[in-house]
Amino acid sequence: MKRSESVMEWQAEAEAKARAEDVLKVLHLRFGAEMPLEIVQSIRNNHDLGKLDRWLEAAVKARSLNKFRQAMEM
């Protein structure tokens, strides 16, 4: 059975949105509720799963929100 390209795109977009929310949840748990808007927007507007995976790992490992911000720029 062949998948339509539209369905595959929707699935990829849904997975990216879920991953972005995972990153934000980890950041919230680690660094508190006050998250700079530019970080939230950058995360939510990104659809690159590889980058979101790296950001999720950085959110878990970063010692501060500034360190996470630096990891986002790499």
Please characterize this protein's 3D structure.
It contains four helices and no strands. Helix 3 runs antiparallel to helix 4. It is elongated, with a radius of gyration of 14 Å. The mean pLDDT is 92.
What is the succession of H and E elements? HHHH
Q: Which residue ranges are poorly predicted, with pLDDT under 50 across at least 5 consecutive positions?
A: none
What would you call the structural class? Answer: mainly alpha
Q: Total strand count, please?
A: 0
Mean pLDDT: 92
The largest β sheet comes out as: none
Strand content: under 5%
Globular, elongated, flat, extended or rod-shaped: what is the shape?
elongated
- Give the termini separation: 40 Å
Kindly list the characteristics that best describe this protein.
4 helices; single chain; mainly alpha; 74 residues; elongated
Task: Give a short summary of the structure.
This protein is an all-alpha fold and 74 residues long. It has helices at 5-31, 37-44, 49-61, 65-73.
Task: Indicate the topology.
Layout: H1 5-31, H2 37-44, H3 49-61, H4 65-73
Helix pairs in contact: 1-3, 3-4
